[in-house]
Amino acid sequence: MTPRQFLILACVVSTAYGWYSHPSARDGYSLPDLISTDEKFEAFQQRETEVTNAIEALYRIPNYISPFHYGVWIRSGIHEGNLTFDGRVDLYFNVQNPVRTIYVHNRGLNLINVELYMLSRDEIDSERVLLEAPRYTENIDREFLIFSSQRILVPDESYILHIAYSGQLRTDDDGIYVSTYVNENRVRRHLIATQFQAISARTAFPCFDEPALKATFDLEIVHHRDYNAVANTPVLEVEDYEEDGFQGYVSTQFERTPRMSVYLLAFLVSDFQYIARENQRVLARSNALNQTDYALDSGLRTLQVMDDYLGIPFTTHMSKLDQVAVPDFSAGAMENWGLCKYREAYLLNDPATTTYRYRTWIDTIIAHEYIHQWFGNIITNEWWSYLWLNEGFATLYEYYAAHLASPEKEYFELFTLEVTQWALDADSRDGTRPMSYSNGATFYAIWDLFDSIAYSKAGAVLNMFRGVLGDETWQKMNNIYLSDNELDAVNPDNLIAAIEEAAEGIDILPEGISIRDFVQSWTEQAGYPVLDVRRNYRTDEIIISQDRFFNNRILNNDPTLWVVPYNVVNQSSPDFNNLTWDWLTDRAIRFSTNISDNEWIILNKQQTGFYRVNYDVQNWYLIIDALIADWTSIHRFNRAQLLDDAFHLARANRLDIEVLLDLLVYLQNEKEYPSWTAASPIISYFYNRLRGTDHYEHFQHFIASLLEYVYSTLSIDTVSDDETNLHKFLKQTVSTWACRIEVDDCLNRTQVLLQETVDRNGLVHPDISAVTYCFGLRRASQREFVYLYDVLKASDNQALRTLLIDSLGCSADPIELRSYLYTAVGGEIQVNYTPAERRRVLNAVLAGSREGVDVMIDFLVDLYDYVVFHLGQSTLNSLVVNIASRTNNAEELERLEHLLESLGSSITQAVANSARATAAQNLAWPSTREGLIVASFLDSFNDH
Q1: N or C: which end of the chain has fewer CB within 10 A?
Q2: Taking the chain, what is the end-to-end CA distance rounded to the nearest angstrom?
Q3: CA-CA distance, 908 to 281, in Å (whole number)?
Q4: Spatial CA neighbour of 702 closest among 735, 732, 671, 743
Q5: What values do phi and psi take at 18, rounded to 5?
Q6: Could you report the per-residue pLDDT of 726-735, keeping only the tens digit for each?
Q7: pTM of the prediction?
Q8: How far is CA 755 from CA 779, 780, 804, in A?
Q9: What is the pLDDT of residues 170-201, one digit of tens each?
Q10: Are strands 273-277 and 280-284 parallel, antiparallel or unpaired?
Q11: Is the peptide bond before 198 cis (omega within 30 degrees of 0)?
C-alpha cells in the first residue's frame, strides 16, 4: 500500500497552490549497547511493552495453530445490486501441541454450519474424514470464533475446519465491499471489490487473519454470467452453475495461489473490460477503458526492470499481473499479489486532462505496488509492528524503480524532497514512534501504524543504508534478503542478516560497531539527530555533536544516540558525488582541519543521511555568500537541504531566523526545482502569518523579487514538447506563487488563457491547467466560472474532477462561491458529488482566498446544520479550526467570534476554545521576537 493512501497514498495535492505534500512511541526491542538510557525510563518502557504485548495477545491467533491452505467459495448476486453473499471456507491447519480449542478470526459473518475433518494423508487434495460438528462461541470484541473439539487435536495430523456462512457487503471501502459507477448509458452498475489489508479478510470469510500465517488458496466465485470475476491467479475454469433460484449464474474457479498472507487475497466481480499485453492486463469500467494504455506501458516497463534488478523474476511465483481501476477505493492503491488495485485517478490517463503530476503519480504508484510483489508478497512483515519492512522498501523503490523504468523522467530527483524532507518534519514531533513498534492488534491500533514513519521515514532510512553500502552491495543485499526468506515472513533480524552477508569483507563501519548496532540505532528508536557543527577558526578545529531534534524545543534531556554516517565537503574541493563516510558514534567528536577560514563546509552530501545539520553563524554566512555569488557551486540536493534545515532549525529556535531570511535571498538567481520546492513551505509559512497584516505588502515585494528572474525564464501559459518533468514541477511552483502574491503578469496571463479556452469551448493544456483554472478565475467573469462548473458536472474522470473542484474554490466572487457551497450540501442544484468531493468543495473555498473564508463564515452561520446533516460533525469542527488558522487581524477575529457565537452549542467548547487560541496566536505573532525580526528584515529589504 502506498503513502498516498496515505495518499496515496497520505498524499495531498493542492492544485490551487501548486505544491505536493504527502500520502506514534516505543516498542519491546532492546536498544543497542551504545545507547545510554536512564534506568527508570528503561524500566518504564519495559513495563509498558509488556502491557502492550499482553493486550495484543488477546486478539491474536495462538501460536500452536499453523494454517497451510484455504478453500474459499463465495456466491453473490451483485449484478442486481444485492448486498448479501453466501460463503463456504475450508481451513486446513496443523497444531503444534495437543489442544481442543481453535481460534478463527471473524467480523460480521453469520455462521450456518460447521464441521471438523481430518485429512487421511498430509496432502491438500487427499480424502477427508468427518470428526464432528464442533461447538463454538463468538467473541465480537476480539473478533474471534472459538471452536471446542470433543477430541484432542494432535500435532501429527492435519485438520480441516469447514464453515458455511452468509454475510453483507460493506459500504465503507473496507474488507469485501460494494462499489458503483455510472456507465456510458448513464446506468448505475454495482461491483464487488476487496481491500483486506490489514485485518479485513475476516469480513469475507473466517480465517487466521495475520500476515505471518501464510497459506495457499483455492478460490471459487459464483456470479451472474453478465459479470466476470478476477483474482490473484488466472482463471482455471468457468462452468455453468445449476441451482434453483440462480438462473444464468456461472462458477469461476482460479488456479491455486503461492503460499501467501491472507490479507493479500483479492478478487473483483464486475462487468469491467480490459486491455492486455504479454502477461499483464489493465481492467476498468468500459467507459474508461480508453484511458488504460499508459498504465499498461508503465507496468510492463517497471516489472521488467525490477525482474532484472532483483534477480528473482516475478513469474517465479505468479504467472500474471493485473491492474484494476476501482471507482471507490479509499486505500489509494493496494499490492495484492497478481491483482493490484488503484483508485481511478492513480491509474487512468486521459491525454486531454491528466496532468504531469498525475502521470508522475501513476508511474510511481505502479512502481510502489509492483515492488511489493517482492517486498511484501514474496516476503512479508511477520507482524504489523514491522510494517516498515514492507512499506519502506516500497517507498524507496516507488521512486528508484520508476527512475529505472523511465530514466528520462528523473523521478528519483523527487525522493529527497517528497520523502526525506517530509519524514524529517513528521519525525521531529513529540510522540513520534520508532520504525519497529507494536501498537496493539485491533483494527484502528494497526491502522494507526500506516503512517509517515512506516512509509517515508523507513524509505529515507533505507536509502541512507543504500548510500552507506553502495549500490552494488545494496543490490546484492536485496537478492540475499529475498532469496533467504522466500515465501516466508520476516522481521528486522532477517534484514540485518542479509546486510551482514552482503557487506562481509567490506570495511564500512568503525571499530566496535556492528551492522546490528547501526541498523537498530535507526529502526528501534524514535526521532533522529541534528548534527551541530562548530568550527574554531583560530585553532582550525571542528566539533560535531549530535542531539535529538525536536521541532518545539532546543534543550532536552533525551539520551538517545545514533550511529551516524556523515561526510564533509568544502568550498575548495566541492565534490558532492563521492559518498565516502565517517562516523559519529558518541555524543560529540573533535578533529583538526586544514580548511581555510574563508571557505564553507557542508555535511551530508546530497542529503543522503537521515538527519539535520546546523552550523555556526560564520559558516552559515560563508554558505550564503557563496550561493549568492554562484548558486550552482553547491549541489542541488544540498541547496534544498540547506533551505529545509535552516527553516526547521529556525522554527525550533536553534538558528536565528534572520539567517534563514538572508539565505532565502540567494533564490533571486535560483533556477532549479529542488530548491524552489524546498522553499515553497517556507514562503507559505510567512504568507500565512503576514497576509492581512501591515507588513504583507513588504512581504509581497520580497517574494516578488525572489521570483522575478526565474519567472522571467518560464512560459506559464504554453507547454512545449521539450519540457522535462522537473521543468513542469518548477513552472507550476513558481507561477503559483507569482499569481498568489498578485504579480500582474501572472494574473493577466492566466485570465486571458482561461477566457480564450472558454471561447473555443475547450480545455487548458493539462500541464498548466491547475494554475490557469485557479488564478484565471480570480479576475474572470461569471461565464468562465459557469463553464468550468459545467465541465465538472459532465466529467466522470476523478483526476479532472478533483482539479476543477479545487480550482472553482479560487473564485473571488462571493455570489459564485456561495452558490458553489450550496451544491456541496445538497442545495437546489444537484451535482453528482461523492461524499469526499462534497467535503473537498468546502475546503477548496476555504483554501482559495480570504474572500472564500468570509463567504464560508456567512454560509456556516446560516447553514451549519446542513453541513452537519450531510457531512458530519467532524467536518464542521474542521472548518471552524481552518477558519481560525486563517484569522490574522482584528476585523477577521471579529468575524470568527460572530461565527462561534452563531454556532453556539453546535460545536463543543473545546473546539471553540481551540479556534480562539489559534486566532490569538496568529494575532500575537507580529509582536513576537520572530515576528519583529521578520518585519525588520522586510522593512530593510524594501528600503533597498
Answers
A1: C
A2: 52
A3: 51
A4: 743
A5: 85, 20
A6: 999 999 999 9
A7: 0.92
A8: 10, 8, 16
A9: 999 999 999 999 898 889 999 999 999 999 99
A10: antiparallel
A11: yes
